[in-house]
Amino acid sequence: MTAPSPRALAWRRRGAAFAAGWRQFASQRSGLVGLGLLVVIVLLAILAPVITDQGGLDVTEATGGTMAPPDGEYPLGTDRSGRSVLLLTLWSSRVSLLVGFVATLLSIAIGTVIGILAAHYGRWVSAGLMRVTDFFLVIPSLVLAIALSTVMERGIGTIILAIGLTSWPSAARLVRAQTLTIEARPYIERSKALGGGHLHVITKHVLPAVLPLVFVNTTLAVGSAIVAESTLSFLGLGDPDPMRPSWGTMLRSAWLDSAVLAGAWWYLLPPGIAIAIVVLAFTMCGRALEAVLNPRLREG
Amino acid sequence: MRSRRVALGIALLVSALVTGPLVASPGAVAAPEAAPNAKIERANQAPTILKVGVTQEVDSLNPFISITRTGTDILRTAFDFLTVYNQEEQKPIGSLAESWETSEDKLTWTFTIRPDLRWSDGEPLTAKDVAWTFNKMLTDEVARTANGSYVAQFESVDAPDETTLVVKTKVPQATMTSLDIPIVPEHIWSKMSDISAAPEYPMVGSGPYIITEFKEAQFTKMVANNNFWRGKPKVDELHFIYYRNADAAVTALQNGEIDLVNKLTPQQFDSLKSDPNIVLNQAQNRRFDEILINPGAATADGTPIGDGNPALKDIKLREAIATAIDTKTLVERVWSGYGEEAAGYIPPMFKDFAWSPSGDQKREFSLEKANAMLDEAGYRKGPDNVRLDKEGKPLNLRLLAHAERTIDEVAGPFIKGWLADVGINVTVQPVSDTQVNEATTRGEFDLAFSGWSANPDPDYVLSLQTCANRPNAQGTGGTPDSFLCDEEYDALYTQQLQEFDRAKRIEIVKQMQEMLNEKATLVILGYENALEAYRKDSFEGFPLQPRENGVIMNQQGYWGYYGATPAGEGPVPQFNDDGTITDGGDAQTSDAAAEEDSNTGLVLAIVGGVIVVLLVGGLFVARGRRKTAEDRE
Fold this sequence. Notes:
The complex is a heterodimer.
Chain A: H1 6-26, H2 29-51, H3 85-121, H4 123-138, H5 141-151, H6 156-166, H7 169-183, H8 186-193, H9 198-234, H10 247-256, H11 259-262, H12 265-293
Helix pairs in contact in A: 1-12, 2-3, 2-12, 3-4, 3-6, 3-7, 3-9, 3-12, 4-7, 5-6, 6-9, 7-9, 9-10, 9-12, 10-12
Chain B: H1 2-24, H2 27-42, E1 49-54, H3 69-78, E2 83-85, E3 92-94, E4 97-102, E5 108-113, E6 117-118, E7 124-125, H4 127-139, H5 148-151, E8 154-161, E9 164-169, H6 186-189, E10 209-215, E11 219-224, E12 237-242, H7 246-255, E13 260-261, H8 266-271, E14 278-284, E15 287-293, H9 315-323, H10 327-333, E16 339-340, H11 367-376, E17 396-402, H12 406-421, E18 425-431, H13 433-441, E19 447-453, H14 459-463, H15 487-497, H16 502-519, E20 522-535, E21 539-541, H17 559-562, E22 565-566, E23 574-575, E24 581-582, H18 599-631
Parallel strand pairs in B: 1-12, 1-13, 17-18, 17-19
Antiparallel strand pairs in B: 2-3, 4-5, 5-9, 6-7, 8-9, 10-11, 11-12, 13-20, 14-20, 15-19, 15-20, 16-20, 21-22, 23-24
């Protein structure tokens, strides 16, 4: 029996760490509930084309009454054009989740790169990058996002860019702080003394060490990205394609069609509750992860 | 920690003090019910006020400048005109002018102004004021901002004596009895150095009310004009209150904060049906909505302008697009049935001039037929079921829409859907109103939502399609609408403007509409109804214009506001052709229909509310748990 290679050892170590982390995570009920909700919602969103017919989103094919209350055929009633609100809510999850994920990845990627670079190189690089960060931090991000999405052509890409480009500064600050504490540790000094270059130090030591934090931050940021997408869509800056609704555009049409005055709660509540549930699920997951990765937050 | 508890205690105490009296005395809740009666009793002493809710900001109250619906609506009640459209059927009748005659060559018009007219400040109102107003517009470009088109062909204006006004025109002008120009007092306006300046209040006027106060984006207050020549109105004050949000205006009407509101959406209109104190008025509107199809935009001198898809120059393609748009569904879905199906360019409200296609001219909605037309015209289908144009490029069209207009927002997906079914890919582009206006004037569109409010005299909307209305090279200086520019159409346009025989003019106008239908540079979507509502407990009613299916607000005259009748002071007056009053019947407004059972709605709303509370509660519980974890650290 030969001794396991260092690589295999490393993987074994990671597997054990993951298992321990999962046990920690599983011991928190809210985290589990959040994760369960997310799995169900993501599955529903992915399977939407399989279990339902996208043709139902086409207003010219709609058969329901105008803002008809829920009944057997339309469990959540219909919208102004006679489309099923349930179908709309289901399909909207696709755009909302997609924008939420991609925009968050974009924003975290920018934030991580800027944060690590600023902390690692220090001095004028840090000063320069941090001033840019401060600049974005003091501009109200909603205003900037609105300005961006007005200038560019309407569509999902624009929304993702607008949210991604405006929400990275806090991530950058966070990653920079974490990088600074890590770079102060002796093994980094040793690595440098042994001839490790910038690239080596950053990719082999700093990045793996900040990744858990980045991961938690991502989970928490998805929720706010989804809210940001809904806000922009509600303000009429979303994707105008009727076949790609989002919860924000649903709320917008409910508002435009005076759903409140008409008492059409079935038009207004589903997208609102959906946003609340998804954001809640991401928050619950994120908090549980945070507790796993940060021992100071653990119970007992 | 301690200070926090003290703060909590104070907060509790304060809230108890605030809510206490309300809880303690149930009588306070019942009080508002008695209010309406008290209101009627008080009417003898306190001034009666008609409070009108408007959802459009006033651009200016300067009669030479204002062009918005709300601004002109207010000014129409503050300044009288030479002639006014009658209440019955919107035909011009004398107002400041008692009578008029034209010379043989139709170039000289002599108006006789009523004697003994007075401005609201007591100064005499004579032909000199009218002449000054017209001459100011002839000499000062700024004064022509709002109504310049009416005086464009004026040669000279004179007032030989106090009751005679002589207007000479360069060419015969059929719109001389419908000059929509507010007449202003010379003794006030001639002293103003800047004619475009914001006016001072109270404004001296000659209409049924005078403007006394104006706060931008808040309100305009008017009081009854004692010197109005038809007599003082029954209402003492008229307030226009601005609401940024139409739903808020509707709620204000339900609460009795305002008495009258218009421009309701079908949903708002329906939601008011169950209120026993509110009377609804579904009126024919003078507006038409259309889709413009860019037939190859060009400037006034014929140079191509803009970036319209060249494929749309083909009339066959435009006809197919027009065939693939279903006005019936649009009326049903977009206007929830509160509208009329598309016919001619002039809305059916103007019975004389309205035209409707018959037989072969009529394009019945049929996707199969539209597909067949495109097949026949040689647009074969490419990949993804999108047809290819004559150069082999896929037919991708942009549809410019007003981002804030409900009609565009709701109708856009329908048009996209139908055109997709015939193999034309449409991208809806919602942009701001200004961007739509600029892009359509510069010809930078393929398809675009548009619409106009026609006047009883069709001249203006007809002029939009003429060659002369195309812009200059910079894309300004014209309102080209669909860039039609057709020699035959232009000839007919000139002919109708110079035709004084009404029957013959109607014939020409109908011919022009037939041409517009044929050329398919625009597709009429339909004519929405004007939806208005007022409180029955404070107002008996209002004279409608036209008398059948007419509107209360945004009239072509001042009848609605002038004849406003407070509750208990009925009947509502009806104005005859000569402007005199007959106390007409009571059938002027349709009463609110069927009471709806609102109980189920209430129950469902409560269920929804409980769900929300549970969700929010869940959120707090989750947060609370986390907090204890932190605290326990």
